[in-house]
Structures are given as C-alpha cells and as structure tokens.
C-alpha cells in the first residue's frame, strides 16, 4: 500500500467513530468491492455534508451525526431531497457556512453540475445499500423505502473531442512545458515581493522544479510522486518503481530532461535535515516538524497552482501536468498503446482522449482528406 493510501486508510479509521453504525456497514461493504481509501473518504465527505444539512434543517433530532437514526432516512420525502439539491446549487451564496466548520475561499465558488451529481450519486449508493443490499438479523432490509431511487441524475455525456477541448486550454503544449519549468526555477523569484517569500522560494525551488519536471517528463500522478522512496528510483534506467491504481506494481520511465532536475534536487535533499530513517524522496518541513518529512499531496497541489497563477495559466493544476505529458507524447509518438503502458491506464479508451486534444492535428487530417 502506498504512503498516501496508508494515510487515507488511517484517516478513514479515525473518522468512522463520527458516523452512525449503518454508515460504517456501508463503508465495510465498499471495502469488499476494493474501493480505495481515498474513494471511501470521498463518500464520507459527501455523506457528512448531507447529514449536517439534515441537522441544520431540523430533519433529525440528533445533534451529532453518529446519533442520526436510520428511521430519519426512511422518512425522507422526495421533495426534501430536491430541496437539498437546490441548496447545493445555491450554497455558494451563503459560503456554505452552516455546514462547514472552517469555510475557505472555495466556499464562495458555485458547485459545478458534475460536483452536485457526484454528491447525489454518493447518497444514492448509500441508500441503495441500505434498502437493497444490507439486511438485519431477520433478513429484512435496513430501509423499507429508498427515496433516492426517485431522484434522477442528469449527467452531460461529453464526446472524446469535447473532453479534449476542455483539456486543451488548461495544459502546456510544446515549448510551454520547458518555459513553465524554467519559470519555476528562474522566473518566479521576481514575484516574491518580501524577503521571507524570497527565502522560502530559494529554499524549495530545487524540490519544486524537480517535482514538476518529473511529472512532465513521465506523466505521473501526484500521489505516485509523493509516495516515492529513494529505493524506488532506478537512475541508470530512468525508471521509477511504484504501485499504481488497482494495486498494480509498475516501473514507468522518465526522460533525461526530467532526470537532470531530479538529480539536482537529490544533491540538495539533505538540507531538509531528514532523519536517517526518512526514505521519502520529496521532503518538506513545518513549524511543528522542522526535520524533513514526506511532502503531502495537498502541498504539491498548492505549489503547482501558485506557480501556474504567476505564469499566467491559472487553470493549470498538478493533474493537468499529467495531461500535458500525455498530449505531448502522442504529438511526437503516435502510439497510444505505448502511452497507455506509461500512464498505467487499464483501458485504451482512457488513453485515446489525448489523441483529440490538439485541434490542429485533427484539422490537418480533415484537410488532407479532401
């Protein structure tokens, strides 16, 4: 199990005490289906939001989530669930303050249709389990009626070309890849307007540049990069040993270009003062832990967004770096099966979306036809 999954599994155990017994049964059922800890945490986040809304709206006498009786779910009406959907659509207007312990700036952002559909889908999964799959000691279902079965979710199906167009504006193409990495190392310093920010950037720029260059040179997931140990790097072969989605062991490659940045960082790694037992490749320090320890996924996501905003592509995210590599790979190596192996995709259809990203290539192909 990767470090990220171990951490998520631990968090899952810590959170379960806050939920009613029937939610715990639901999570145990999902575990038998080999859902990852991060997926299960996603279910709990969506269920938490709904349960807090129920308590705020007076739909349950419980003052804590763990005390919400099963009967309260059984008594829900279709109109009530539709009211919840309306709340999701408008909750940004109230910064979701009633349901969030510590609202952040994102609380002011409107939920996308996709996010709302996911939240309702999580509830549909819970209610389906309670009404159709689970049974008590008498063989009876936990719920006698499933109100979520009456709720329709309208998902807009995008064609591969439409998905590709959505990706195109948020990725790096050709020279932008090298320009962005150079900006992280050399250009961002001019955006640091205080001595403290300058010192922080100089302390971490070798690490940050190596992380970004490595993702761009091999199309890795951020969780895969964060979970790397020193023993996972096979420098002479430009390979990384890792466990990918579905618990698949793999050893994908990275380019010589990315290798240069990785090597530069590894020469500087000791300045984070890690303990002799710390084997993580990419390290961070904090006020509460000044010795170098494994950097977190969220930290990498935030640093990529910080650099992307200053670079002028605010929609660029750490996952879009993976998209950038995949698009560039197919631009220069038109073999989707090779890319499928490199990215660790189970289905070639997932890989093929990148074949449509570059509209110019498709347009030229159409022109050549007639």
UniProtKB/TrEMBL annotation:
Domain named Core-binding (CB): residues: 17-131
Cellular component GO terms, alphabetical: cytoplasm
Domain Tyr recombinase as annotated: residue spans: 167-367
PROSITE patterns from the UniProt entry: CB, TYR_RECOMBINASE
Primary localization: cytoplasm
Source superkingdom: Bacteria
One GO molecular-function entry: DNA binding
Pfam families the record matches: Phage_integrase (PF00589)
Gene3D superfamilies xref list: 1.10.150.130, Intergrase catalytic core
Subcellular localization: Cytoplasm
GO biological process entries: cell division; chromosome segregation; DNA integration; DNA recombination
Keyword annotations of the record: Cell cycle, Cell division, Chromosome partition, Cytoplasm, DNA integration, DNA recombination, DNA-binding
Entries under InterPro entries matching the protein: CB, DNA_brk_join_enz, Integrase-like_cat_sf, Integrase_catalytic, Integrase_recombinase_N, Tyrosine_recombinase_XerCD
UniProt keyword annotation of Ligase present: no
Protein name: Recombinase XerS
């Amino acid at each position: 199990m990767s470090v990220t999954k171990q951490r998520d599994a631990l968090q899952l155990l810590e959170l379960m005490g806050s939920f009613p017994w029937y939610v715990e049964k639901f999570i145990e059922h999902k575990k038998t289906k080999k859902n990852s800890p991060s997926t299960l945490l996603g279910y709990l986040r969506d269920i938490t939001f709904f349960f807090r809304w129920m308590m705020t709206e007076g739909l349950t006498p419980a003052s804590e989530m763990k005390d919400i009786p099963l009967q309260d779910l059984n008594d829900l009406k279709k109109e009530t669930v539709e009211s919840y959907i309306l709340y999701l659509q408008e909750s940004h207007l109230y910064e979701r303050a009633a349901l969030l312990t510590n609202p952040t700036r994102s609380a002011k952002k409107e939920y996308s249709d996709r996010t709302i559909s996911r939240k309702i889908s999580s509830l549909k999964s819970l209610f389906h389990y309670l009404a159709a799959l689970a049974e008590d000691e008498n063989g009876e279902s936990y719920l006698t009626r499933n109100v979520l079965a009456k709720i329709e979710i309208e998902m807009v199906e995008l064609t591969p070309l439409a998905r590709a167009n959505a990706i195109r504006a948020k990725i790096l193409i050709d020279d932008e890849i090298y320009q962005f990495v150079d900006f992280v190392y050399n250009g961002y310093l001019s955006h640091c307007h205080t001595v403290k920010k300058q010192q922080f950037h100089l302390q971490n720029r070798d690490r940050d540049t190596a992380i970004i260059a490595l993702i761009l040179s091999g199309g890795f997931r951020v969780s895969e990069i964060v979970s790397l140990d020193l023993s996972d790097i096979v420098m002479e072969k430009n390979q990384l040993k890792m466990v990918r989605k579905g618990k698949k062991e793999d050893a994908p490659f990275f380019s010589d270009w990315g290798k240069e940045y990785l090597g530069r960082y590894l020469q500087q790694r000791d300045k984070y003062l890690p303990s002799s037992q710390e084997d993580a490749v990419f390290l961070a320090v904090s006020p509460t832990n000044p010795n170098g320890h494994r950097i977190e996924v969220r930290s990498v996501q935030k640093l990529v967004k910080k650099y992307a905003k200053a670079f002028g592509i605010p929609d660029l995210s750490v996952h879009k770096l993976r998209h950038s590599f995949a698009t560039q790979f197919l631009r220069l190596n038109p073999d989707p099966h090779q890319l499928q192996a490199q990215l660790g995709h189970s289905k070639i259809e997932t890989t093929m979306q990148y074949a449509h990203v570059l509209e110019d290539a498709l347009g030229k192909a159409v022109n050549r036809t007639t």
